[in-house]
Amino acid sequence: MLKAIKIAVTGPESTGKTTIAEYLAEKTGGVAVPEFAREYLDKINRPYVYDDILHIAQEQMRNEDMAAEKNGIVFCDTELLVTKIWCDDKFGQCHKWILDELKNRSYNLVLLCNIDMPWEPDPQREDPHRREYLFDLYRKQIGLYYNNVVEVTGDGSSRLNNAFEIVTEFLKRNC
Question: Is the separation of the CB atoms in 61 and 6 below 8 Å?
Fold first, then answer.
């Protein structure tokens, strides 16, 4: 049984995950768990390697669990499907820990961010020309791990409003 209501925000890079998680946390009085990969990759001062993704995944889950112990509603800016697809795509394999944890981790709701918004450059983003391919991977794999997925579409404020309406409706039905 989940102590907190946990809502994961997932999808390919540059789809607004961070903005959505922070916005929803502010609007609902919840907390956003930031993407650990960003902080970690800024600090390592070298190209990332396969084992870095395992470390990132483990820290992300630790941070998520700590937030869920202390807060009523938690918005997770990424989840393990992101690290699985990242590992598979960049290294052709994925750590067993990530795969096992992905099968056992649950969220009350999962928001899948569509690629229907403009790409925004960022030093940590790698795939501006592969957005459709990567989004197709998410669409194909997300149902293997989660059954409570809603796609978030739109650009700018309409995207944020769409996400907020989805979450508001979910909370009305389930709380």
Answer: no
- Using CB atoms within 10 A of its CB, is residue 74 exposed (0-12), middle (13-18) or buried (19+)? buried
Structure tokens at 54: 């395992």
Q: With cut-offs at 50, 70 and 90, classify the pLDDT of residue 18.
A: very high
Cβ-based neighbour number of residue 49 at 10 Å:
12
Q: Which residues pair with 75 in a beta bridge?
A: 7, 32
pLDDT given at position 2:
52
Q: Is the pLDDT reported for residue 121 higher than 80?
A: no
Can you tell me the mean pLDDT for 32-37? 96
Query: Cα separation of 47 and 98, whole Å?
Result: 21
Distance CA 48, CA 35 (A): 16
CA distance linking residue 135 with residue 141, whole number of Å? 10
Q: At what angle do helices 80-91 and 96-104 cross, to 10 degrees?
A: 150
At position 150, the amino acid (one-letter code) is V
3-class DSSP assignment, residue 71:
coil
